Amino acid sequence: MNGQAERPDDQLTEASDAAMDEAAAGSPAAGDSTADPAETALAEAEARASENWERYLRAAAEAENTRKRAARDVEQAHKFALERIGKELLAVRDSLELGLGSADNANIESLLEGSAATLKLLSTTMEKFGIEVVDPAGEPFDPEVHEAISVQPSETVEPGSVLTVVQKGYLLNGRLLRPALVVVAEK
Fold it and tell me: At 128, phi and psi to the nearest 5?
């Protein structure tokens, strides 16, 4: 059947069809309205079954094609998901390369200005993609977004609050990328 999967009873159906054709050819009543109603009903049922089988095969093929298309789309999405942020980070890299290239002829003030401009460019790019800085100095310690690396007594900050931020943390659209490494004030 056109290289498609066949039903197990296809051979029976084909044999039945052949027998019906032989009987119809040899019978003077072939095409007559006096044909056996059971044979007519059987022929109609087999025609409907065959039609339904063809519909099933088409639907199964369509489902398989849809599954393959969806898998291909997901693969492409994963492959190129970072394209936009990659393009934006190229500007930051270019700025750093320009700063390093001009470092021989620059004074400290211009290097600091260039570094600050590059950091601002990087911060803008990060904000554009939903990356927020977690800088909790003086805030109450929150184990969900902070990681305590030590505890120190303090007169200036309330106990249980962040005394010093050793390394800033980052959130991506509200989800923690990296916790802030902090020193917590003790009682």
Answer: -60, -30
In sequence order, the β-bridge partners of residue 151 are 184
DSSP string computed for 98-139:
HHHHTGGG--HHHHHHHHHHHHHHHHHHHHHTTEEEE--TTS
Rg (CA), the chain: 38
Q: What is the pLDDT of residues 10-31, one digit of tens each?
A: 544 554 555 455 545 444 444 4
Chain centroid, CA 167 distance in Å: 31
Residues 6+ apart with CB under 8 A from 133: 123, 126, 168, 169, 170
Tell me the whole-structure pTM to 2 decimals: 0.59
Q: How many residues does the chain have?
A: 187
Q: What are phi and psi of 72, to 5 degrees?
A: -65, -40
